[in-house]
Amino acid sequence: MNKKTIITVLLTLLAMSAACQGTGATVDSTPGWLWEISGNGLQQTSYLFGTCHGEGHNFTKEELFGITGLEASLNSVKAVLFEGGLNPKKSEADSTAIVAEFKKATGFISNPGPEYFMPEGTSYESLYDSVKHFKIVDKMLTMLAERLNDGEYWKKSPRYWCSFLILAQLTQHGKKQKDVMSVDRLLKQEVLERGIDVGYVEGGTVEASVLSMFTNAIDTLSMKGQAEALYRMMEGMARQNKIFEGMTQAYLENDTCKMENFLRGEGFVPGAEDSDNSQREITSDRNVAWIPVIEQNIVQRPCMIAVGCRHLLGSESLIALLRRKGYTVEPVENK
Fold it and tell me: Using one digit for the tens of pLDDT, what is the confidence trace for 222-255?
């Protein structure tokens, strides 16, 4: 992974949950988040539904079932498969792997190795070609270090502060998820109340995958590359509300095209057009891994596959992969 990829990883983390702050938008566009899966020998129609994991907005039943055809589709299926993050019964192997990843990722805080310290004779100011970028980083790290009672921030390398901020973002995201009624959580409640079977397309969590990816990626950067990644991350954090609001608007308008165009405008390529695209690991690679699980289930009974809406976007989306397998995947049109 090069510097461009690392920066994309950092920014992707800020938006990977498809933020959901309410905007009052109406659901009236096509194609939307609900798609029919048929053909290729299937005896009954199954469905693919793009959810919104949540980043502040508490969804209501009215908003959920405002999506055309969702309630009728839900009543016609025998099982709903969610992402692994909603599975309270992870396997022992999954749980062990997740714990190991977090221990590996957080160990540097209490016991930083030499790679987390600034080389002798190197200053933060010397790592930035732009005085403006240095001043922004200097101001933010000074405030952060003071809160941590670690006043001399410059003794730690950009790698240390990048890693610290990544973990802070993931921790904050996890806390928010517990208090927010996301589309996934609301839909799961409805599914359980209706006595529909619940399943999962994966066993682990995206957080563990992201931590592993980031740990491996940051190792490849030079000191100047780390410094640039740190600045870009801070820049991304400053504009995350704009990203969240834009994604929310597109989601509540039930408009995949608007969502994809918005993400591209913000620098998030929702596919695998770029072979060096970090989002391949967050979305595309996971899509590929889910296809056998999806196929195994939809040949047995009509199902709804309910996963994050970004998995429905781009050239390597679940829609594209299923079509390549010979299935007919078409949007449920708004009438």
Answer: 899 999 989 988 887 777 777 777 787 788 888 8
Mean pLDDT of 218-222: 78
pLDDT on residue 325: 97
Do residues 117 and 153 make contact, with C-beta atoms less than 8 angstroms apart? no
Give a three-class secondary structure readout of the chain.
Answer: CCHHHHHHHHHHHHHCCCCCCCCCCCCCCCCCCEEEEECCCCCCCEEEEEECCCCCCCCCHHHHCCCCCHHHHHHHCCEEEECHHHCCCCCHHHHHHHHHHHHHHHHHHHCCCHHHECCCCCCHHHHCCCHHHHHHHHHHHHHHHHHCCCCCHHHECHHHHHHHHHHHHHHHHHHHHHHCCCHHHHHHHHHHHCCCEEEECCCCCHHHHHHHHHHHHHCCCCHHHHHHHHHHHHHHHHCHHHHHHHHHHHHHCCCHHHHHHHHHHCCCCCCCCCCCCCHHHHHHHHHHHHHHHHHHHHCCCCEEEEEEHHHHCCCCCHHHHHHHCCCEEEECCCC
The reply to whether the predicted model has a pTM over 0.85 is: no
For residues 229 and 6, the answer to whether their CB atoms sit within 8 Å is yes
User: Cα–Cα distance between 319 and 212 in angstroms, integer?
Assistant: 27
Average pLDDT over residues 300-318: 92
Q: How far apart are CA 84 and CA 202, in angstroms?
A: 5
> Could you tell me the sign of the dihedral formed by the alpha carbons of 144, 150, 154, 155, in that order?
negative
Task: Taking residues 97-114, report their average pLDDT.
Answer: 71
Q: CA angle, corner 17, sides to 200 and 330, nearest 5?
A: 60
**Average pLDDT rounded to a whole number, residues 37-65:** 88
- Higher pLDDT: 310 or 239? It is 310
> Nearest 5°: phi and psi at 222?
-70, 175
152 vs 93, more confident: 152
